[in-house]
Amino acid sequence: MERSLEEMIEVLKLTADKTRLTILLLLQEKELCVCDLVEMIGISQPGISQHLRKMKQAGLVQERKQGTWMYYRLDESAHPVVQAILQHAPSLKEKLEVYEKQRNSMMCERENNG
Amino acid sequence: MERSLEEMIEVLKLTADKTRLTILLLLQEKELCVCDLVEMIGISQPGISQHLRKMKQAGLVQERKQGTWMYYRLDESAHPVVQAILQHAPSLKEKLEVYEKQRNSMMCERENNG
DNA sequence: ATTTTATATAAGTGAATAATAATATAGTTA
DNA sequence: TAACTATATTATTATTCACTTATATAAAAT
């Protein structure tokens, strides 16, 4: 209520996109790297990176570098409407579990981070 | 949580526009006709009507005809995320009160509906 | 040092859309 | 009936934006 209407519009525009809302729902479950999101969502890597950059600039996600990987997670200090929106959306917990099982079953190339 | 991701995206896209979010915030206070919204928001009448049509089609607002006027109000059965969003936005109660006072002071051409 | 891998940035393209101007419809009033 | 008012619809335009391809950067592995 204290934040401006313009701030709300910015956040709503960011969540009003299927790719970005999916990213947020996945990050709600677990910190993930870009390549995880590319595989699970199925658009190009630059596409994912551009969405992440926008959401980082708006304070919706935070990043952490580890080697060549860049891990992303939800920013806890984001506009509170983000949590309200995510809680009204269907969970992607199952989708993430399926992805992780199949990834682990193919003799993971990297250490299992998480 | 039961409603699909696509349904959420549709609602979020509709609220992620300054004009439409303003309309919803005003309707949250009171049922209003198109000309009220035109005056308060300051875009053309077709612009307002088009936004209202979209929101009506998505089940966000309802309409009621009275003479040549068409009154709009929030649809109570809209996707619950709408209420969550509106409650996180700054209220436009004051803006509406100012408008109504100045409208009443100019010897209202129509009966004061509401 | 060269190659490979993960990610970021830049450039370009097509589609969606918010706004306006012009016109149509329909109810009201003279 | 004719003029007026409130709203809806249509056509048009300009802008935004999601995505892709191509390229750059940077860390890791060979």
Describe this structure in words.
The structure is a homodimer of 114-residue chains. With 114 residues, chain A is an alpha+beta fold. Chain A has one domain (5-105): Orthogonal Bundle (Arc Repressor Mutant, subunit A). Chain A has helices spanning 5-15, 18-29, 34-41, 45-57, 81-88, 93-105, and strands spanning 32-33, 61-66, 69-74. The first copy, chain A, has a 3-stranded antiparallel beta sheet. In chain A, a hairpin with a 2-residue loop joins strand 2 and strand 3. The longest helix of chain A has 13 residues, at 45-57. The radius of gyration of chain A is 14 Å and the shape is globular. The N and C termini of chain A lie far apart (35 Å). Mean pLDDT of chain A is 92; it is low at 107-114. The A-B interface holds A 1-6, 8-9, 12-13, 15-18, 21-22, 79-81, 84-85, 87-91 and B 1-6, 8-9, 12-13, 15-18, 21-22, 79-81, 84-85, 87-91. Chain A binds a DNA duplex (30 and 30 nucleotides) through helix 4.
